[in-house]
Amino acid sequence: MEEGWRALDIANPTDEHSMLREMVRSFVSDEVEPQALEFNRDEKFNVELFRSLGESGLLGISVPAEFGGGGMDATAVAIINEELSYSDPAFCLAYLAHDQLMVNNLAQNGNADQKSRILPKVCSGEWIGCMAMSEPDHGTDVLGMETSAVQRDDGNWVINGRKMWITNGSVNDEGGTADIVWLYARTGTDEKGRAEITTFLVEKGTDGFSVGQKIFDKLGMRASNTAELVFEDCVVPPENVVGSPGESMVHMMRNLELERLGLAAMALGISRRCLSVMNSYAS
Ligand SMILES: Cc1cc2nc3c(=O)[nH]c(=O)nc-3n(C[C@H](O)[C@H](O)[C@H](O)COP(=O)(O)OP(=O)(O)OC[C@H]3O[C@@H](n4cnc5c(N)ncnc54)[C@H](O)[C@@H]3O)c2cc1C
Q1: Which of 17, 70, 91, 127 has the CA that lies 20 to 30 A from 27?
Q2: Catalytic residue set
Q3: pLDDT tens for residues 164-222?
Q4: Measured from the CB, is residue 165 less than 6 Å from ligand 1?
């Protein structure tokens, strides 16, 4: 066999991917696996372990290095999600909500000021982010969303509405919100009667932004927090609007490419663990 040959395959197409998988696998076995049962049984989100993903360089893996990210590709995202989900799919869901639903979205669609202001914080783990799209009466039917934003004469936007089932929306049992929310809200209706959706970056501590309730007793994904978020006359400055008002269907669609791949990789990790448990039992 040739000198330097490594087992590169479709799951690890480059040396860098192989090394990433080895690193994540060892992090999972040392840090994630030992806490998984307890945190899932008790429905607790392991915030400290989550923040340590930033030190390991895993938060913002698809974000360019100049903003503090890993500068890697969609295959890297799939590798991390598969390896985390082999041990703790709920912890991985929290990772996906932050890394793929919020951080990658900002890296793809944010402007220069938003990226340089926010990406270093979410890539280091200083800030925990989430994406709020679903509502109590609108899940699959995204365009039916009722949360609305109206721009005032002074340029600020006023948001009213409720979002439901938001992963990382709350980070603890004391009502602590995410540090930053990628929020979709209705800002108008086009000539065909379809909703025009706009993205807002809502920061923790903004007046009118709070956790409505933390969802308890989930059947699965118990170690990731799921919450209802409430926006009551929540005032967001124009610099926290992503792109032009009304163009956020493009953001959703651009980001869904990575979200769906990330979710599929989670299913792969869960399946690999099931197979391993079944094999051990059978033998
Ligand atoms: C653990 C967890 C975490 C979540 N995290 C987030 C998050 O971070 N951010 C966020 O925004 N949302 C989040 N969600 C919400 C999730 O995106 C929604 O649950 C999902 O969009 C489905 O919406 P729904 O639950 O209202 O189901 P529904 O929309 O009521 O759908 C129920 C069923 O009906 C089917 N259906 C719906 N409409 C049609 C139709 N027109 N034709 C045929 N079939 C149809 C659907 O395929 C589905 O099988 C989370 C949900 C869970 C359970």
Answers
A1: 127
A2: 259
A3: 999 999 998 888 999 999 999 999 998 888 889 999 999 999 999 999 999 999 999 99
A4: yes
The pTM score is 0.95
- Domain residues for the domain of 270 are 15-127+253-282
Predicted local confidence at residue 6, as pLDDT: 52
Q: What is the CATH number of the domain that holds 84?
A: 1.10.540.10
For residues 11 and 76, what is the distance between their CA atoms, to the nearest angstrom?
Answer: 10
Between the CA of 227 and the centroid of ligand 1 the distance, in Å, is 15
3-state helix, strand, coil in the chain (%, to 5): 45, 25, 30
Alpha-carbon distance of 171 to 247, in angstroms, equals: 29
Strand partners for 236: 157
Q: What is the DSSP string of 28-71?
A: IIIIIHHHHHHHHHTT---HHHHHHHHHTT-TTTTS-GGGTS--
